[in-house]
User: What shape does this take?
Amino acid sequence: MRLLAIGKDRSGLYAPAVAEYAKRLGHYLHFELVELPEARRHAGTPGARDEEGASLLAKIRPEEHVVALDERGKEYASAELARHVGAWLVAGRDLVLLVGGADGLAPGVLARAQEKLALSRLTLAHRLARLVLLEQLYRSMTILRGEPYHK
Assistant: This one.
């Protein structure tokens, strides 16, 4: 499982928790967090999303099952998400999850995704969304293993 995400946490608020959940996920499966740079050439313009999208698409392997975080995606309760994570893992394909930058994901990236996932109907900062996603993936693994983390 890989998470491709645009940008790094320069504030220092989320990075320690993201690192902790990434480490915890590593106890259950091979997990990799790949942080890609925010748009530089088109920063602050409508082209930023496309520049970031090209960067994401370049990192996706043809055989990977792609799940994009998108506000128009499906929302799941934690137990439902765990069932989906379990199904993704049982399918035997490598899984890549995508978190866009401040402007979201480019249309080409959304078109490449087999599934779209919404963490909430609330708008979340993309760095916070990354943290919430990792916590929920960790929670999913504990649910699948019958461990007491999810109460």
